[in-house]
Model the fold of this input.
Amino acid sequence: MSSNSSLHIVIFPFMSKGHIIPMLNLTRLLLLRHGITVTIFTTRANSPFIRQSLSVQHPINIVELEFPADIPELPPGVESTDRLPSMSLFVPFANATKLMQSDFERVLENLSESSGVSCIISDGFFGWTQQSAEKLGIPRLVFYGMNNYVMTICRVLALDRSHLKLGPDESFTVPGFPSVKLTKNDFDPEFNEPEPKGPHIEFVMEVAIATSKSQGLLVNSFSELEPAYLDYWNREFCPKAWCVGPLCLAEPPKVHRDQKPEWIKFLDLKSAEDRSVLYVAFGSQAEISEEQLREIAVGLERSEVCFLWVVRSKVEGLEERVEGRGLVVREWVDQVEILRHESVKGFMSHCGWNSTMESICASVPILAWPMMAEQPLNARMVADELGVGLRIVANNGSVRGFVGSEIVEKMVRELMEGEEGKEARKKVKDIGEAATEAMEGGSSWRTLDQLIDETCRKKNP
Ligand code: UDP
Done:
């Protein structure tokens, strides 16, 4: 491969932790492995998180744009979806970013004139950057953070809508994929309308159209994980999908620190006692009712397993009742470090795609409890397709709804001590090893090389 030192890539992640984290890992790969110059665009309030994640190891150019002020629906100062008071404000938040277009283009034009820009890797949610890229004649690649299974199934079902006449929990098969059995409850309600409309649908359509005009899709997955879906997408749809992950494997191991956080000390202790720990976390933005949190607490308590629960809300009295066996943490944790800890043997997860990849890469089986967006489909993939985890279902047998403490207790025990848990543990180990191979000289490594060659060098021969 020819030298990369003349290449300059602009990275623009959407302002959500679940989007920023994998794109920072991608940045690490471009900087370290490929020697490419990278400029990251973000807003002022998101900049410290990015600097902190990267600066120790790499000098990095960061452009801070102003987040639009005075948006009536948005509380002032909120520049990241995990700080929104409710995810119902997601669409106004995402639409507000369109007001950054002129600033983005001004800086991009200056960069382009001074040092040249080989390519923009933009978050898919910034559909408007397609226009900016076209104006300046720069190739645009899109990053969404979804896998091929979800992208392909959603696209197939957007074209074939015959399942819409079924009841919410009636099972149906996805055309072209006879083994994939879903229900309408695997999708957020607005996608099950006969004539989908409203601001969320408009947003999804807008970004999908912009993506279809881009030069390619970067997917945080590896081709051996889901070959049928990757092949189908690349045969039937566009733009071309390139699997360059799992990106969490680009995250460096934790260096030795003077002061370990209390949750790592807790895990060390459990390890010394030869006890396995269930890690419980539902991502950076799940909204869980107080009633549901109480049932989780009771289920964990009764399961008698050791657990580490990262949760933003307060869970009254739990820690006192399970002293020494369970720890509840309200701060931001390093999830990858937790999953890589030798004592962690299970993950009760909302199945955000980053969490799912991180768990698989750490060979930790998953107890899938999806909450929203594409998480129910990820959970199907985890439990039905890959067999790397078990599935929580609601009291009424649906994939969506209230889950009582007795179900939590039973499933936690099954994952940590049961036969099904053992099976999932075996599978996740094999798939975790395949993930490492893909990133260390294997398919994802080669794909990134090829993508850089095909996309960036067209402009910079
Ligand atoms: N995360 C973390 N510490 C926390 C909460 C979340 O490191 O306290 C990370 C987690 O490891 C993952 C990302 O935040 O990389 C969350 O992304 P995911 O797709 O799993 O879920 P989302 O938060 O987008 O729903």
Summary: The first helix runs from residue 17 to 33.
